[in-house]
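Task: sequence design from structure.
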C-alpha cells in the first residue's frame, strides 16, 4: 500500500510539474499565434482581436511589435500617444508627416493598440519595459524611425518634473498620477545609452529619423552636449524641418 501511495504521489507531482512547465509554453504559443495574426490587416476584426489578446498574453515581443506599429504611421510622422486608466486618449506629435487619406478603420486599430500596450506595460512592469526598449534601440537592425520613437519614450518618461526641456502637454502629470508605471525617473541610467544611439541616428538616410533624433536630443538639454558637433552639421541639412529641429536642439542644449 505504501508503494502504491508513493506511486500515486509521484504521479500527481509529475502532473503538477508538467502543468507548471507547460503554462509558459502555452503562453508562448498563444503569443506567437496572435503576433502572426497581426500581419493580416485586411481583416479588421481579426486584427483587433489579436491586438486585444496580446495585451493579455504578450511578452516583450508583443510590446515591441505593438510599439513598432505605432511608429510606422502612413503619414511618415512620429507621435507619442497613451491612454489613462479611464480609457481617455492623449497624444503629441514630434515629427509632422505628410497629409494622407486615412483608413476608416485606422482610429479603432490605433486605440486598441494603445489600450493593449497600457495593459501590457502594467503587467510587465517598468523595469522590464525599459530594458526591452534599450535592447531594441541598440539593435542595429531596428528601423531608425522605431529607434527614434522608443528613444522619445525613454527621454520623456525618465525626465523629472520641473527639469524638462520639452514643453510637456498639460495631460502628462495627470497621466503619471493615474498610471505610475509611466514614470521612469528611477531608470535614468537609460538616458546616456539612448543619447549615444540618437547621436548615431543623426546620420540616418531617413529625413523623419534625423529630425526626430534631433528633437529627442534637444529634450535632453545639457545632458546631450556630446551631440552638439553633429547637430551643428545638421543645421546645413537639405531638409528644412531637419535644419529647424537641429537648430532648436542646439539652443536647448546650450541654454543656461
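Answer:
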Amino acid at each position: 500500500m505504501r508503494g502504491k501511495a508513493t506511486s500515486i504521489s509521484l504521479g500527481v507531482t509529475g502532473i503538477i510539474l508538467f502543468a507548471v512547465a507547460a503554462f509558459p509554453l502555452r503562453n508562448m504559443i498563444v503569443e506567437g499565434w496572435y503576433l502572426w495574426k497581426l500581419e493580416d490587416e485586411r481583416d479588421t476584426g481579426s486584427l483587433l482581436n489579436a491586438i486585444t489578446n496580446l495585451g493579455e498574453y504578450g511578452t516583450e515581443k508583443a510590446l515591441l511589435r505593438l510599439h513598432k506599429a505605432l511608429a510606422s504611421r502612413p503619414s511618415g510622422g512620429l507621435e507619442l500617444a497613451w491612454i489613462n486608466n479611464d480609457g481617455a486618449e492623449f497624444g503629441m506629435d514630434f515629427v509632422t508627416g505628410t497629409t494622407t487619406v486615412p483608413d476608416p478603420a485606422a482610429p479603432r486599430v490605433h486605440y486598441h493598440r494603445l489600450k493593449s500596450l497600457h495593459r501590457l506595460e502594467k503587467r510587465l512592469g517598468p523595469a522590464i519595459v525599459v530594458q526591452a526598449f534599450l535592447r531594441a534601440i541598440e539593435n542595429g537592425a531596428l528601423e531608425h524611425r522605431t529607434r527614434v520613437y522608443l528613444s522619445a519614450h525613454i527621454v520623456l518618461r525618465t525626465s523629472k518634473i520641473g527639469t524638462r526641456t520639452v514643453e510637456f502637454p498639460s495631460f502628462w502629470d495627470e497621466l503619471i498620477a493615474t498610471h505610475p508605471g509611466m514614470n521612469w525617473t528611477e531608470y535614468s541610467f537609460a538616458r546616456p545609452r539612448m543619447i549615444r544611439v540618437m547621436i548615431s541616428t543623426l546620420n540616418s538616410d531617413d529625413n523623419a529619423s534625423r529630425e526626430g533624433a534631433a528633437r529627442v536630443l534637444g529634450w535632453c538639454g545639457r545632458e546631450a552636449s556630446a551631440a552638439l558637433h553633429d547637430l551643428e552639421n545638421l543645421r546645413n541639412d537639405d531638409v528644412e524641418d531637419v535644419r529647424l529641429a537641429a537648430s532648436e536642439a542646439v539652443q536647448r542644449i546650450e541654454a543656461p
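Residues 14-23 have pLDDT under 50 and may be disordered.
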